[in-house]
Design brief:
heterotrimer; A alpha/beta (392); B alpha/beta (483); C alpha+beta (96); B: 483 residues; alpha/beta; Rossmann fold; Glutaredoxin; 3 domains; eight-stranded mixed beta sheet; disordered N terminus; C: 96 residues; alpha+beta; Alpha-Beta Plaits; two-stranded antiparallel sheet; two-stranded antiparallel ribbon; 4 strands
Chain lengths: 392, 483, 96
C-alpha cells in the first residue's frame, strides 16, 4: 500500500529529492539555467549531510558527463542534470555513454539554443541529441517527473538494459513549477530501486578494458549489438512502468491517448504542453469538434507499435514540435511520418512548429492550431510545415 | 640498503602488465614509457586513457594490451573521467561498496590531449583536488593523426600542419610549459620524466602514487616516426633531450622545485637537433637562438630549484670540499685512486655497481661527480647509467652531506602535529634550507614524506634514529647531542 | 576471446564492447613487422638487463643462463637493444 506524502514543492526540488532517496553516489554538474534549481538543491542536500554523495563542481558540461562516465564505470550510482547549450556541449559524450552502456540518469530542463541567446524552454536541445542512443522520456507534470525519475534509475541499471536515461523536463514551464506531488517514502524507494550492481565495473579485482578501438571489420557488429540492445530495452521499460503501477497506482505508457477514440483528427504533443493541449481538447470536444490527443512519452527507443496503434483510424495527425530541424521542419513530425508510412491506411501528418524559446501556447492557441491543421489537411499548405504564432 | 650483487634493471619488476602484441610503431618511445610505467603503477589502478596513439595501438577490439582496468572514452575529457572515477570510488568506499583495497585512478593522455584539447578538463580536475595521477605522454605533436603541430611541439620542429618551408621554420612559438602550469595549480606533486632514465621515472611514479590528491608527471616519449629518426635512437634521443636541457628532469613537490639531474654543463642542443629530421632544416642562427633560449630556461629552472640554490661552485666538485672531508681534500688524484681501489675490490664488475657506489659514498659521504665518471669508465658502462642508479636510491647523495643526516618527516600524521614548525625551527637553528648542509658539514637537513612511525609524530630522524613527539623546544638540545 | 576479429558476430560483442580478457594482445604477432633481427654474442653478456628494460615491446626475456634474448614473435626489430647494450652483445642483421 502506498505510503507516499503529498507535498507542494518546486519540480526541480522534487527531482533532487528522488536523487537523494535512491542514495546516489556521484553527481557531476555544471550550472546552467533552467537546470540550476535541481543541482543547487542536490548540493544543499549533500552539504547538509542528507545525501552521502560526491558532488563534483565541474568546469563544463562536457566534463560533467565525462565525469559521469568515470563514475558509472566504477559502479557508482550517477546523476547529472543540464539544459540547452549544456546538453549540446555534452553532445559527443552522450554517444559514448550509451555505446559504453553506462547507466547514468540525467535530467534535462529543456531549453532553446543560441543564437540569439535564450534561456527559456523548447525542445531544440534534446532534438539535437535524439540519435545519441539514450533512453529519452518526456514528462508532462510534476508527478510524472517524480515517478519518471524513480523509474529512470531502475531502467538504466537493469541488467537487461544498461543504458543512460534522459528525463526531459520543459525548462521553466515545468522545471520551475510549484505543484502538489506525491513523494514516495524511503521504504518504498528502497523496495522499488535495488542497489546498483553494474556487471563489469572498472575493478582491479577483475580487470576489463572499456572503449577499445574498433576498425571496420568489427565496428558494424559493435553498433548492431548496441541497436539490438536499445530495442530490447523497450519491453523492460514497459515492465518497470507496470511494476510501478502495481506499487504506486499510477500508470505510464510509452504513448498516451487522450479522448482519441474514434477521433478523425488527432493532435500530437510531447512534454508539458500536453497538459494545455488536453484542456484544449476538452474545450473543443465540448464544442463538438472532432479532436483527440496523442502524447509521446517514450521518445527513444521510439515506440513504433504503440504509436501506430494510437494513430490508426485517424485521417489527420497534427503534430506540434517545439524545435526546428532547419531546412526540414519539425523533428517529431518527421518521425511520425516515417513511423506511419508503412501503414496501409495512415493519417495525413500536418506539421507545426511553435512554443520556441519559452513562448507559451495557450488553450486558444491549440484551438487555432487545430483549426489551421484541419484546413491544411483539406486544402494543403504552400509549405512543408508551418510555424505557429510568428508575427508576419 | 644492504649490499646486493644485482644490477639495477633486475630490481625492476619482470611482470609485464602492459602486454606485448601492441601495434605501436617500431621503436615507439611512448609504448616503452607506458610499459615501464605500468611496472610501477602495479595492479591496484584504474587507467583512464585519452584518444591518441596509446588508445589505438594497445586496445583493438576484441583484444587489449592492458591487464589493469582500463577505460578510453574521448580525446579531451580524460581528467574529467578520472575525476568521476575517483569520486565514484571514494563515495562507494564511504558506503562500503566497490573494491576493498585502495585504488588509484591514473589518467593518461598525449601532449595534444593534455596541453591542448583536454587542457580545461585537466585544469578543472587539478583544481578540485581529486585523488588521481595524470601522466602526459609527451611526444611533442599529434602523432596518431599524422604528426600535426600541438602546443607541446618544440620551436623549430617541422610537422605536417606546421611544415618548414621557404617562408616558415615550422613551429615558431616555444613549447608550452605545462608542468609549470600544472604546478601553478598548487598540487602536491609534479614531475618530468623520460624512459631513458627509467629509475628516475619509476621513482617519480612511486612518489606520485603515494600522494592522496592530484599528481602530474610529464613523460617525454621519443617518437621515431614523428621526429624522423632511426628506430634505435629512442633511448639516445631521450638522453640527449635531457642532457641538452631541452627537456630537463625535475620535480615540484608542494611547490618546491628540485632538479632530478642537476647537470653541471649542458650538452649543445645542436647534438640533439641534428639527430632528428624534424629539425634538419634549421639554419645555424636558429639553432643558436634555441641554444640561447634553452640556456636561459635552464638557468631559470636551476634558480627555482633546490639543488641550484647553492652557488655553482658548491656543487659536488672535489676542489671545493673543505678539509673536514678528509680524503677528498687531497684533490682529484686522491679521488681517482680511491675509486680505482674500490673498483679493483669489486673486480671492475658492473654487476656490483651498487656496492661500488655504496663504498664510495661511505668514503666521501656522497658521490662526487668525478667518482661517478671514474666508475663509468672503469666499468665500461655509460655515465647515464651510473647516474640513474645513483639518483634512484635515496641512500645515495650527489651532494656533499654532513656527518649527521637529519630527516624531518612531513607526512600527514606528522604534518597535523606541527612538523612544518619543527622543520622551520631546525632550519633557523642551523641556518640551512631542506636539502642543504651546514658549512661545517656537521648536519644535512632533508625532509621526507613518511618514515612509517606515524604514531610517534612528529618525528625527526637523525642518522636513522627516531626522535618522536618532537617539539620546537626540544630541538636545540637534540641538535647539541650530535657533533 | 577465442574468436578473432573476422569471426566475431554481433552476438559476441560484450556489453559496451568491452574486452574482458586482460593482456590478450599477447596473442597478436608483431614479429612479422620486422625488417631486421637481433643476433647475440652472448659471451659478452653481463646479464645487466638494460636491453630488457629499454625494449619498447617488452619482448626480451631471460634465457636459461640468465642472459637476455628477444622473443621473435613480438620483436619488431627496432634495434634499441643493440644500440643500448653496454657490451655490444647484440647485432642487428637484415631479415630475409
Amino acid at each position: 500500500m502506498a505510503e507516499e506524502t503529498r507535498v507542494g514543492t518546486e519540480v526541480s526540488l522534487a527531482v533532487g529529492e528522488i536523487v537523494r532517496m535512491v542514495n546516489t553516489d556521484v553527481i557531476a554538474a555544471y550550472p546552467i539555467t533552467p537546470q540550476t534549481h535541481i543541482v543547487e538543491h542536490l548540493a544543499e542536500l549533500v552539504a547538509d549531510g542528507k545525501l552521502d554523495a560526491d558532488f563534483i563542481t565541474i568546469e563544463s558540461e562536457h566534463s560533467a558527463l565525462s565525469a559521469c562516465l568515470g563514475s558509472a564505470a566504477v559502479g557508482a550510482r550517477t546523476f547529472t542534470a543540464t539544459a540547452g547549450q549544456g546538453l549540446e556541449l555534452m553532445h559527443e559524450v552522450l554517444f559514448v555513454a550509451s555505446a559504453m552502456r553506462l547507466p547514468i540518469v540525467m535530467a534535462v530542463a529543456n531549453r532553446a539554443l543560441s543564437s540569439p541567446l535564450n534561456v527559456w524552454g523548447d525542445h531544440s536541445d534534446v532534438m539535437a541529441a535524439r540519435d545519441a542512443g539514450w533512453i529519452q522520456i518526456f514528462t508532462e507534470n510534476g508527478q510524472e517527473v517524480v515517478d519518471t525519475m524513480l523509474c529512470a534509475f531502475r531502467m538504466a541499471e537493469d541488467r537487461r538494459v544498461l543504458l543512460p536515461v534522459m528525463v526531459n523536463i520543459d525548462g521553466f514551464h515545468l522545471s520551475h513549477m510549484i505543484e502538489p506531488m506525491f513523494l514516495p517514502s524511503q521504504k518504498e524507494v528502497d523496495a522499488f530501486v535495488p542497489p546498483n550492481h553494474y556487471p563489469f565495473p572498472l575493478d582491479p579485482n577483475k580487470p576489463v578494458a572499456m572503449g577499445d578501438f574498433a576498425p571496420p571489420i568489427i565496428y558494424t557488429e559493435a553498433k548492431w549489438s548496441q541497436e539490438i540492445n536499445i530495442e530490447h530495452s523497450a519491453p523492460v521499460i514497459r515492465e518497470i512502468w507496470g511494476e510501478f503501477a502495481t506499487q504506486f497506482g499510477r500508470t505510464y505508457r510509452p504513448v498516451e491517448s487522450y479522448r482519441a477514440e474514434g477521433a478523425k483528427t488527432l493532435l500530437l504533443t510531447m512534454g508539458s504542453f500536453s497538459e494545455t493541449a488536453m484542456t484544449a481538447v476538452d474545450k473543443m470536444r465540448a464544442a463538438g469538434i472532432d479532436i483527440g490527443l496523442i502524447r509521446i512519452r517514450l521518445w527513444r527507443p521510439f515506440p513504433f507499435a504503440e504509436f501506430r496503434e494510437a494513430a490508426k483510424g485517424a485521417d489527420t495527425l497534427i503534430v506540434l514540435d517545439r524545435a526546428i530541424s532547419f531546412g526540414v521542419g519539425g523533428p517529431v513530425a518527421a518521425e511520425a511520418r516515417s513511423a506511419l508510412y508503412p501503414m496501409e491506411k495512415r493519417p495525413r501528418v500536418v506539421s507545426f512548429v511553435g512554443g520556441l524559446g519559452g513562448r507559451d501556447i495557450t488553450v486558444a492557441g491549440f484551438e487555432e492550431i487545430v483549426k489551421r491543421g484541419k484546413e491544411i489537411a483539406a486544402h494543403g499548405s504552400p509549405r512543408e510545415f508551418e510555424i505557429f504564432g510568428v508575427r508576419e | 640498503m644492504d649490499k646486493q650483487s644485482v644490477f639495477i634493471p633486475k630490481l625492476i619488476s619482470r611482470k609485464e602488465p602492459f602486454a606485448p602484441g601492441h601495434r605501436a610503431c617500431i621503436g615507439c618511445g611512448e609504448a616503452l614509457a607506458v610499459r615501464q610505467l605500468c611496472k610501477e603503477l602495479g595492479d591496484n589502478v584504474i587507467v583512464v586513457n585519452a584518444t591518441g596513439c596509446m588508445e589505438i595501438i594497445a586496445s583493438q577490439l576484441p583484444n587489449t594490451s592492458w591487464t589493469v582496468p582500463w577505460m578510453h572514452t574521448l580525446f579531451e575529457n580524460t581528467a574529467a573521467v578520472a575525476s568521476g572515477a575517483s569520486a565514484g570510488l571514494r563515495a562507494m568506499k564511504r558506503k562500503g561498496k566497490g573494491p576493498s583495497q585502495y585504488v588509484k585512478v591514473v589518467g593518461m593522455g598525449g601532449d595534444g590531449a593534455t596541453s591542448d584539447i583536454g587542457f580545461g578538463a585537466l585544469s578543472g580536475a587539478l583544481q578540485r583536488g581529486h585523488d588521481f595521477l595524470y601522466i602526459c605522454l609527451d611526444n611533442e605533436a599529434y602523432m596518431n593523426t599524422g604528426i600535426q603541430q600541438s602546443s607541446a611541439t618544440p620551436f623549430g620542429a617541422s610537422t605536417t600542419t606546421g611544415p618548414a618551408g621557404e617562408k616558415s621554420l615550422g613551429q615558431v612559438s616555444w613549447k608550452k610549459n605545462l608542468p609549470a602550469i600544472v604546478a601553478a595549480h598548487d598540487v602536491p606533486y609534479v614531475a618530468t620524466a623520460c624512459p631513458s632514465y627509467f629509475h628516475d621515472m619509476l621513482s617519480k611514479v612511486r612518489k606520485a602514487m603515494a600522494v592522496r590528491g592530484p599528481a602530474y608527471i610529464q613523460v617525454l616519449s621519443v617518437c621515431p616516426t614523428g621526429w624522423r629518426c632511426a628506430t634505435n635512437q629512442t633511448i639516445r634521443l631521450g638522453r640527449l633531450a635531457v642532457e641538452s636541457g631541452m627537456f630537463p628532469l625535475y620535480e615540484v613537490v608542494n611547490g618546491e622545485y628540485t632538479l632530478s639531474l642537476d647537470l653541471p654543463t649542458l650538452r649543445p642542443v645542436r647534438e640533439y637537433l641534428k639527430a632528428q629530421g624534424r629539425f634538419r632544416h634549421l639554419p645555424d642562427h636558429e639553432i643558436d637562438y634555441i641554444q640561447t633560449r634553452v640556456d636561459k630556461e635552464y638557468a631559470k629552472l636551476r634558480k627555482l630549484s633546490r639543488v641550484a640554490k647553492a652557488p655553482a661552485a658548491a656543487r659536488p666538485a672535489v676542489t671545493h670540499v673543505p678539509e673536514s672531508q678528509g680524503e677528498i681534500a687531497a684533490g682529484l688524484p686522491a679521488l681517482q685512486e680511491t675509486v680505482d681501489g674500490i673498483l679493483a675490490r669489486y673486480r671492475n664488475d658492473p654487476a656490483l655497481l651498487i656496492s661500488i657506489l655504496q663504498d664510495i659514498q661511505a668514503a666521501y659521504n656522497y658521490l662526487p661527480k668525478e667518482s661517478m665518471e671514474r666508475v663509468g669508465s672503469g666499468l665500461n658502462i655509460p655515465l647515464s647509467q651510473v647516474y640513474s642508479v645513483a639518483t634512484f636510491f635515496k641512500a645515495f647523495s650527489l651532494k656533499p652531506r654532513g656527518r649527521n643526516l637529519i630527516h624531518v618527516c612531513l607526512g600527514t600524521a606528522c604534518h597535523v602535529h606541527g612538523a612544518a614548525r619543527l622543520r622551520d625551527k631546525i632550519q633557523r637553528a642551523l641556518n640551512i634550507e631542506p636539502g642543504g648542509t651546514t658549512p661545517d658539514f656537521r648536519f644535512t637537513l632533508e625532509t621526507v614524506n613518511c618514515v612509517g612511525a606515524c604514531a610517534l609524530g612528529p618525528v625527526v630522524m637523525i642518522n636513522g634514529k627516531y626522535h618522536g613527539q618532537m617539539t620546537a623546544q626540544k630541538v636545540d638540545a637534540l641538535l647539541k647531542s650530535y657533533t | 576471446m577465442s574468436k578473432n576479429e573476422t569471426e566475431l558476430t554481433w552476438k559476441d560483442i560484450e556489453v559496451g564492447a568491452i574486452a574482458c580478457d586482460p593482456g590478450s594482445a599477447r596473442g597478436y604477432k608483431t614479429g612479422d613487422w620486422r625488417s631486421q633481427r637481433p643476433t647475440y654474442n652472448h659471451a659478452r653478456c653481463l646479464k645487466c638487463g638494460l636491453c630488457m628494460i629499454y625494449c619498447p615491446e617488452g619482448c626480451i626475456y631471460e634465457n636459461a643462463e640468465g642472459k637476455f634474448e628477444a622473443s621473435l614473435f613480438h620483436c619488431k626489430g627496432c634495434g634499441v637493444c643493440a644500440k643500448e647494450c653496454p657490451t655490444m652483445v647484440i647485432t642487428m642483421v637484415e631479415e630475409g
